[in-house]
Every structure is written in C-alpha cells, then in structure tokens.
Amino acid sequence: MWIRHKGFLEVVLKSWSQPVVGEPLFVLNSKLKSLKQELKSWNKEVFGNVVTLVETAEEEVLLCENQYELSGTEKDKAALLSAKEKHLASLAIEEDFLAQKSGIKWMKEGDKSTSYFHSVIKKKNRKKMIDGILDEGVWINDKDSIADSAIKYFQSAFTGGIEVENEDQLMDLIPNLVTTEQNEMLMANPSIQEVKDVVFQMDKNSAAGPDGFNGVFFQHCWEIIGSNVHQAVCSFMAGNSLPKGMSSTVIALIPKCEDFPRFYPSGFIKGRVIQDNLLLAQELIHPLDHSTHGGNVLLKLDMSKAFDMLSWKFLSLIMTKFGFSAEWIDRILACISNSWFSVLLNGELAGFFPSSKGIRQGDPISPGLFALASDYLIRGLCAIMKDSPACAYKTKCKMIIPCLAFADDCLIFGMVLKLHSQKQLCFWSTTKLCLDR
C-alpha cells in the first residue's frame, strides 16, 4: 500500500540519512527502528483510516459530478476528472490493504475484490481467535490467564539443555566431507550483489517480522538501504553479534484443539517432494505380512516438534564431524542461539523470552540444519542394517531401504529381532536425546 505513494521513498530517504554511530549491525537496527516510527506518523498523516479515505473520495466525486451537471464548465470537468482519479487511487490503496491483511497471494489482477478480501479476513480472524484454553486439566478463558499459560508453555518448550551422550559413537557415523577450500568460500565476505540477489529472492508478500518490515520493503528501498544491509552482513561474518531486535521471532498459533502443545505447527521443509516416498511406501507395505523369520515391521516416528527440540550441541558436533570450520559453526550458532520469542495471541504480543534449543521455523538456514540432523538418523539406520543384515526389511527388491522421510514423520522398515549390539543401543539413545523422536 505504501509503495504506491510517491512520497514513500522520500520519507525513507529522509529518515535513513540521519547519522548513526556504531557497529554496522547496530546502525542497521537503529535506522530500522527510527524509520518504523517515521512511517507510523507518515501513515497516520497521509492515509489515516483507509475506509474513511475511500468514503471521502466518493463524496468528493459526487459533489464534483453535481457541480459539473449544473455548470458544464471545463474547470468543473477537470475537477471531476481529478476527483475520480483520487477515488480510483483510494480504491487501489484499500484493495492493497485488504489483500495484505487477508494473506491472499494467488490473486494477481482482475476486478476489485474487496468484498472477497473482507470475507477471508473475517474467516481468518474467527479461526485464529482463542477464547479459552485447557491448562493442566483446567479450562481458562481470562485474557491475561491465557497469555500467562502460553508464555509458560512455550518458555518451557524452548528452554532446557539437552545433554548429548555417546559422542564417540555419534562421530563414527559421520564422514568428513567439507574441504578447506569450501570452508574458505563459506567464510568469505559476500559482495553487495550477492546480498542483493538473496534479498530479491525473498517473498515480497511475506508476513512482516516483529520489526514491521517484510520482503517488499527491502526490495523496493534497496537503493537507499542496500549499503547498510551489506555492511551489516559483513559485520556479522566478522564475528559480531546480532542485536535482539534482529533475532526476535513471533510464535503464530494455529488453534486446532484445546491445549497449546498442538497449537504450534510442526517443522516443515519447503520444497521437499514427498510424492515419490508416498508411492514407495505403498509398495513397501505389501510385503509387510510376508512370512519371514521374525517378521517385517514398520515403525512410524512422529518427530515431536522436530525443529523446536533440536539440540544445539548435537548440531555443533555434527557440523564439526562433517568438516565445517570452527568459525563457520560459530556463525551458525550465533544465528540460532540468540533467539527471542513472543507469542501472538488474538492480535497482541505476549512475553519476550530466549531459547536454549531448537531452530526457528521460517529461518532460511533451518531446513539445512534439520537436514543435517536427519542425515544422522538415516546414516545410523544404514549402519544398523550393515552391522546386522538380519534386521533389514525383507522384500523382493535387492536394495535395502531403511527409512522414508516425510514432512514431520519418518517410516522405518526393519525386522522383529532382538538387538544386542551396544552400537545400536547407543545410536537410538543419542537419537532420542538430540532429535527428540
């Protein structure tokens, strides 16, 4: 909505030009905070209430039409055309505003769809409204009590250390794959063009973070803010810490039941194609009841809030064994360990607390880190099958398939046999602790 207005970039440039002294990360964070306040004031002054803006424009068109019908002069005709242009502009602003609130991304162009957006917004608001919650068997519906319960649950879920056991057995499963040249490439400062390419790959209609800025802001204002963004990235790569304002996250709840554990979505890796695994799983289920020694068995593992429960120490050990440099691991841990959360309840933020485990949903590096953790699970299962071939799932296919991964579930194929290997027991113990399967 704002980027349509010709004065938007002027406000951004004026605010951004104010001098700020400090580290590049501090400078960027401070400029964003100042700009947020400037834009709030500008929005109130220029746009005000969007609905009122449209109604005022409509009234002006009616007045100009009546005046032109009475006089028929060129001056009144020009005034009428100007009023109609303002009315069309106000309608475009209203549509942008409602489209953003509704979260509709598939609609690109066409007739005005404000009534449709209104219905979507009302439906979303009804779905997201939390009127009451079941807390330890007691139903509560007081606003403050619900907020306190949410903070207590998520603060408990995202904190608490996880001790990694059997580190020697863990390290045996992971090969050293990352070369010195690759580590040097990872730690090299990116060029401003590389940073720009990443910024312009962002979804411009993505939901804004706690700072209020989304992808379209950084893309539309790149010529003004690009230099500071690049300097901040290079400063972080040099070892400086992220300010709290840059590492804070909002927990958006999806009400599906009566208690908080199932309000929060499980981890999902965007772009992962699971159709092939679905077809393969259907084929592998057929020999499940075949007559074999011990019998085939299929285990379904629900990765309990997989992103949220991942151990940071476990990730550090995995990356070390793969061959990532200590500097790179330090930068990754700086991204995930400096996380602060607030819970979004009925349109209002509640709480502000840190985490001591887990990775954030929506963070671009989270799928890659989760893939590393999943790789340990797959390698461990393959090691068990190699160590005890009798444990392998019996099919007519010569290829052994130990497991299939889905969005937040994993199917493990094997045989019903007693496992006596200490190595196998250590693997399952570490898996439970580090991945909370």
UniProtKB/TrEMBL annotation:
UniProt signal peptide: none
SUPFAM superfamilies noted in UniProt: DNA/RNA polymerases
Organism phylogeny: Eukaryota, Viridiplantae, Streptophyta, Embryophyta, Tracheophyta
Domain Reverse transcriptase: 266-414
Protein name in UniProt: Reverse transcriptase domain-containing protein
